[in-house]
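Exercise: predict the fold of this chain.
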Amino acid sequence: MSGPSTGPSNLRSFSKSSSRRIQPSELGSRVGEGSMRTLQLIHRQDKGQIQASPFQGDFAENRPRTSETPNLSEFPVPGLSALSRSQVRTPSGSEGFFKDLSAEARRDFAALATHFRCPGSTVLISEAQKPSRILFLLEGGVNISMNSSDGRRLLLGVAGAGDTLGLTSAISGDSSEIRAQAMYPCSIASLRRGDFLGILSRHPSANQNVARELCADLARIRGRLRIFGLASSAMARLAHLLLEWCGAGHPTREGIQIKCALTHREIGECIGASRETVTRALADFKAHGLVRLRGSNLVVTSPDALASYARIDSLPGPHRPAA
């Protein structure tokens, strides 16, 4: 995966406060997030929208985990640093909220946004947080999950460059229903909720982008419900997930190539299965020539054959839109 392309110079402008070190309290400890926009998975590699981590391990291995998972509001000041003008890498005009955003709206955004970098494992949004700010991921990857009180986790997906964290909560004012945690170091732009709503009221193009984002959220929710509602086994759910990723994969002579930075454990958390179950299912798919694993690349040799083997007849093909 490659990093996001450099955006217009206007978007890289800073507010006066961006040249100093940011205090954690300024970032808002209660940044709501109900947006299912974050269901977008790591398979957006075809547009190079997610920054690869230099620490990322092989697809078939577990990425090392730290015992501590610092929250944005409690992480020590040295861990959160403001970015200088030359350090900012912003998404291109074709990504997420910034797609086709007017020049005037970009200038408005640049004047109000605060830019910062956070280390990996930082919790950017916690469940039940109030929406004081909205975050725009400029570089990096963020795991989006729902967690139970007994420690179980459902991984909804991975947000990449250009994605918005906290969209639904920022609009509705409701508390967050998800947890957003950096996979590795991320560059982020932050807006106060009031400033964000002001941009929406002043710029029609920003409103159109938000409406498009929310419609895409709904489509992804339907896809995820299809996986859990219509797949009776973990193998079928995994096949559903791979076929979902194929929709944004890269066609090659060998099949549909998918770039995946998730470990087997994290894939299991996407479909409600254990790491061991995912490993066995992938090995079975590989033995039958349905997939090929090459580091962080996975190739689905024949989506139709994979669907047939997993006895899937309700999921639209990767080249056919859902009804």
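Check your answer against the key: The longest strand covers residues 133-139.
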